[in-house]
Design a protein that fits this description.
- This protein is an alpha/beta fold.
- It folds into two domains: 11-173 and 357-370, 3-Layer(aba) Sandwich (Rossmann fold); 176-354, Glycogen Phosphorylase B (Rossmann fold).
- It is 43% helix and 15% strand.
- The chain contains 16 helices and 13 strands.
- It has helices at 20-36, 52-58, 82-100, 113-122, 138-143, 175-178, 184-190, 210-218, 220-225, 239-246, 263-269, 279-288, 304-313, 326-339, 341-354, 359-370; strands spanning 11-15, 41-47, 63-66, 104-107, 127-131, 149-152, 166-168, 199-203, 229-233, 254-257, 272-275, 292-294, 319-320.
- The strands form two sheets. Strands 3-2-1-4-5-6-7 form a seven-stranded parallel beta sheet, sandwiched between helices.
- Helix 13 links the parallel strand 12 (292-294) and strand 13 (319-320).
- Helix 7 (184-190) packs across helix 11 (263-269).
- The protein is globular, with a radius of gyration of 22 Å.
Length: 373
């Protein structure tokens, strides 16, 4: 069409958050959208008081906050405000949708995505759910019937969602985190480790993981006696305790860190990983292909971390210990794995088969298919 007709900039809303597991994929999708079309307008919608309100602006994107939180699973006074929060959020989400007038709305899970996608689908705006886990949360199950596409990371999701809407895209991962090729020398220097010794990496998420931390505390001597090194991300709550017991073990190759900023170096240095089983941690570990023992967080909604981990165990891609068994079992399991190179090779090869490293681009493909020019 000739003449003065000018197409408007494409507009996308990305909604959700609450944890890094929802926020980092959301930012990865936004970055991939910008890469595809630098003129695209992106607005985030999150939950007031949650970490997205800080992380999203830090990544360079505007965000609006809804007054919303989850329904507590136990009887508590907090639940009394829940209906008001839902009504308030639906009203504000509707206003945001009307003002911004997006071409497509994406929900990445977390409290804010419910009201935002509900408001969008009511207006017949195309919507996409990005489901990170092998077992979806309540919000996404409720939204599934009204959205246009459901981007998933695991097989067998037709148990929960309409089959004709499912696209297997994988989970978006931070490229700078999984880019570990040729970085092992720098990694050993960064953590001041001996490149001739095998290294165990322990990550329990940004908050830390009490059962994993207690188990590592118990087995420190075992790690040292066997001549192995340790990168121990404790999280905020266990850091001081861990520091007190490891302060004089630096010459033994024990590194205690509250939060690892250079995960690429941590992955590059690791021979074996001990981790929670959040969807994004799993996607990163598949991409780097490092043998892992998963100890799922038992309080995760719908016990999805355990289901995520077992999906890998089934494919001989990982080992698994119940959270309640970590203190008893981790020592033997960890030693057996780090001493068994053929088992490490099998796990590593099977992890890499499951890796999808261009999930953000695949999701952007689906978004663009829905944009009506």
């Amino acid at each position: 069409m000739q003449g003065n007709f000018k197409q408007h900039n494409k507009k996308i809303i990305i909604s959700g958050g609450g944890t890094g597991g929802h926020i980092f994929p959301a930012i990865a999708i936004a970055n991939a959208l910008k890469k595809r079309d630098p003129d695209i307008d992106i607005l985030f919608v999150g939950a007031k008081g949650k970490m997205e309100m800080e992380k999203v602006p830090a990544a360079g994107y505007p965000i609006e906050g809804l007054w919303i939180s989850g329904l507590q699973r136990k009887l508590t006074l907090k639940n009394l405000s829940f209906p008001f929060k839902v009504l308030s959020s639906l009203k504000k989400a509707k206003k945001i949708i009307n003002n911004f007038n997006p071409d497509v709305v994406i929900g990445v899970g977390g409290y804010a995505s419910g009201p935002t996608l509900r408001a969008a689908t009511k207006k017949k705006i195309p919507a996409i759910i990005q489901e990170q886990n092998s077992f979806p949360g309540i919000t996404n199950k409720l939204l599934a019937k009204d959205v246009s596409r459901i981007c998933v990371a695991y097989d067998g999701m037709n148990k929960f969602f309409p089959e004709n809407k499912i696209i297997k895209t994988g989970n978006p991962v931070r490229q700078n985190v999984i880019d570990i090729n040729g970085k092992s020398e720098e990694a050993y220097k960064f953590f001041n480790l001996d490149k001739n010794k095998k290294t165990i990496l322990v990550v329990g998420g940004s908050q830390g993981a009490l059962s994993i931390n207690k188990a590592i505390h118990k087995y420190l001597e075992l790690i040292i006696e066997n001549g192995f090194q340790l990168i121990w991300q404790t999280g905020i709550y266990y850091y001081q305790t861990a520091l007190d017991v490891t302060n004089n073990l630096k010459d033994k190759g024990i590194r205690t860190i509250q939060f690892i900023d250079r995960m690429d170096y941590a992955y590059a240095a690791a021979d074996v990983i001990i981790s929670r089983a959040g969807a994004i941690a799993i996607s990163e570990i598949c991409a780097v292909g490092k043998p892992t023992i998963f100890i799922p967080l038992p309080t995760a909604a719908e016990d999805h971390q355990k289901k995520n981990a077992l999906a890998l165990v089934k494919k001989e891609a990982a080992l698994f210990i119940e959270n309640s068994e970590a203190i008893n079992q981790l020592g033997n399991t960890m030693m057996d794995l780090i001493k068994n190179e053929s088992q490490q090779s099998v796990l590593s090869a099977n992890l890499k088969k499951l890796a999808i490293t261009n999930a953000d681009e695949r999701i952007v493909d689906e978004i663009f298919k829905l944009i009506v020019n």
